[in-house]
């Protein structure tokens, strides 16, 4: 057998495993899910490939299906739970060989408020199989817990995961707090941008687009930052001095109320809303304000326009026109007329919504970076 | 020779204008002709250069820097040399040149010895202060003992010595060491006799340091000279690392024989640095001890991680009211039955109060319940005994809780549920209907008698029973910021959880509540899901039992 056929066979094994796992997840059949990955492992597929090309691949598809309104939230949670158990069973069946040359210790954690633990968990497993000693702290780790853990264990590197851009301020505090201990931070996840621009903005020591790239970076090792050098937020983000971020965030509750009141005045249909419908609308406005404030934090209008575009996709997949978002943005413009950066972002956001054509695309999963 | 004579004449002419007072000037001065011969020299200059009499060559009596300066002054003419500086014997001198018309140079000398010493001392002090400030912030950054030792030896080699070895008090029979040479740090644990390094035994006991000049580098044992140290050791300083009351260790500093030996001020400075390293190391050690104690005590108080037991899924989620704490007044536990046919007892409850004090009482309730497990057949009886135990304790708090005795039967799971003054468990059916379990009872730890009514519930595949504390339903927040999450929202959220695995139900509820709360203050929150799996559980073949995938 030549190498090429071996590679083709590997490809076929993984493709088959992906299809089988997808079917098992749709049926919520944990046993079949286990069978899908173990069959691939029995056929000689590498653990890393099964983790990243099969499990992560199917999880990504689950997100796409949810975005396209073909999967319910419950199905999405169930799929994640099945994947968690499959990964646990894999670790049990194929424990990583003890490292000959210790490849360094890594603490893997999700930033506070980040519930999507699966990408971080996959990275932890990949690193274990590459010979690292790994502490996986799981989803939404409060920064004080992370720091206490690091004082006890003093790993060589901390890997932080975040998929939600609205968690960027929390990620920033975590990054600077870890670096102040003299430990370098590698970050990953959609929150940091598809090109890692927000990782650079927040002063992370390294960024990786995916688990393989992260493992490659860690194999080379990261230099230690100077311990004790404590950076303030505004050192990294001088634009915060204009106070727009702080004021919008602090005034969020009032902004949501005022926007809601304005919507009721402008849109007669809203007066007939049920309490639950009003709450959904208030949640939508609250999300818009959340993304506006995180765009102000990073001073990146794309965080805001990208969110609106993605929300438009999600709405249209559920047969709601994206233009329903526009009156809320217009009201926010009135309310935030003294805030130049906010006004600019809101204007750009409205332009993005106005430029949307008929719903033709399938939305990508997860909030945009 | 005419030129020499000519120059001498003109020099004398120059001097005649100032007269004999020049010879008694309080600053040294001398006249040197263009060919480098001393023409005149005043009394103070003669003190500096006793061999210099008129007619001698400057090169024979003066240091090179002055001879060189003279040559340049003669060659370059006026303006070529302003001032030259250099050392002469114990002095530091500045020599200012004035050019005569005949090419001779009058050198006016100023003694700068004290000033240059003061400048050097100031520079050293500034460097040391900057180093100490930097060292302190680095040393205090980490509360990890190993990192702290690493930083101490790294800093010591960066500024004080060619190599550094930090010896900490013995842990058992061995002393943990960190050593650094050329920036590379090595941790070792060595069985050593401190008496083999002069001054080490004293330093480890906190006695004053032995002066460096008393320590013969030749007697150092092998472990005290790190691998990679190039060349023989020239001088050694052993200085104690003072800790909080007890010595934190000792620092051995080594310099190579081709480098200057430690002088007295460097020894003093090494002690100042060691004091900071010692304080940081003691803080790190204290933190390690405290966090070890906390972890040991906390192990009993932390919510356990749950998994599948005898064919039934259990999953739990816990969040304390503040991020800095790990335990609070909410608790849960699962006590697996002895065999697949035996009942597993799950409990979830809430002690009045928050924080560590409340957590201590949860620990007491949990261990009392564990002791009462054999009586779990009768919830009412068990609660009465628990009530008695709480009433007789010194705690004045009360608690509410739910007991769930769980047994898997072929197709379904049979639950016996009893609420003792606690929010009622919710049952999620496969079709998405959500109902409260029909149990009731009084809280415990408050009244002499408790009464309780137990409900029996069967869970089919994919059905869940959710136990939760009021931290869920009373969570305040939402998009407008001040609404309670409430029973209706919880039940609506659960309706979407039909058919989900237990962990997924817990995760879903935790996520929704966390999103609802946002940045608001909240109470402790505990959630437990008990679920009959829809299909065969992977954990059934996870290696603890023989199965298809464990071969």
Summarize the structure.
By secondary structure, chain A is mainly α. Chain A is 60% helix and 6% strand.
Structure description:
The complex is a heterodimer of chains A (369) and B (551). The two termini of chain A are 44 Å apart. In chain A, helix 1 runs antiparallel to helix 2, helix 12 packs across helix 15 and helix 14 (301-317) packs parallel to helix 16. Chain A is 60% helix and 6% strand. Chain A has helices at residues 3-26, 30-42, 47-67, 73-93, 118-129, 143-153, 168-180, 197-201, 211-220, 233-236, 244-250, 252-266, 275-298, 301-317, 326-335, 340-354; strands spanning 105-110, 133-136, 157-161, 185-188, 206-207. The mean pLDDT of chain A is 89. Chain A is mainly alpha-helical and 369 residues long. Chain B has three domains: 2-111, Beta-Lactamase (2-Layer Sandwich), CATH 3.30.450.20; 118-296, 2-Layer Sandwich (Beta-Lactamase); 313-541, 4-Layer Sandwich (Phosphatase 2c, domain 1). In chain B, helix 5 (113-139) packs antiparallel against helix 6. The N and C termini of chain B lie far apart (111 Å). Chain B is elongated and about 125 Å long. A six-stranded antiparallel beta sheet of chain B has the order 12-13-14-15-19-18. In chain B, strands 2-1-5-4-3 form a five-stranded antiparallel beta sheet, sandwiched between helices. Chain B has 551 residues and is of the alpha+beta class. The longest helix of chain B is centred in the middle third of the chain and has 35 residues, at 264-298. Chains A and B meet through helix 2, helix 4, helix 6, helix 12 and helix 13 of A and helix 5, helix 6, helix 8 and helix 13 of B.
- Helix coverage percent of residues of chain B? 25-40%
**pLDDT averaged over residues of chain B:** 87
CATH architecture annotation of the largest domain in chain A: 3-Layer(aba) Sandwich
- Superfamily at the CATH H level of the largest domain in chain A? Cobalamin-binding domain
Mean pLDDT score of chain A, rounded?
A: 89
CATH homology superfamily name of the largest domain in chain B: PPM-type phosphatase domain
Query: How would you describe the oligomerization state of the chains in this entry?
Result: heterodimer
From the N-terminal CA to the C-terminal CA of chain A, the straight-line distance is 44 Å
CATH architecture of the largest domain in chain B: 4-Layer Sandwich
| Helicity range of chain A | 55-70%
Low-confidence stretches of chain A at least 5 residues in length (pLDDT < 50)?
none
Number of helices of chain B: 13
Largest interface: A-B, 54 and 49 residues
Domain count of chain A, please report it. Answer: 3
Number of strands of chain A: 5
Main sheet summary of chain A: 5 strands, parallel
What's the CATH first level of the largest domain in chain B? Alpha Beta
Helix count of chain A, per DSSP? 16
Biggest sheet features of chain B: 6 strands, antiparallel
| Domains of chain B (count) | 3
Rounded to the nearest angstrom, the radius of gyration of chain B is: 43 Å
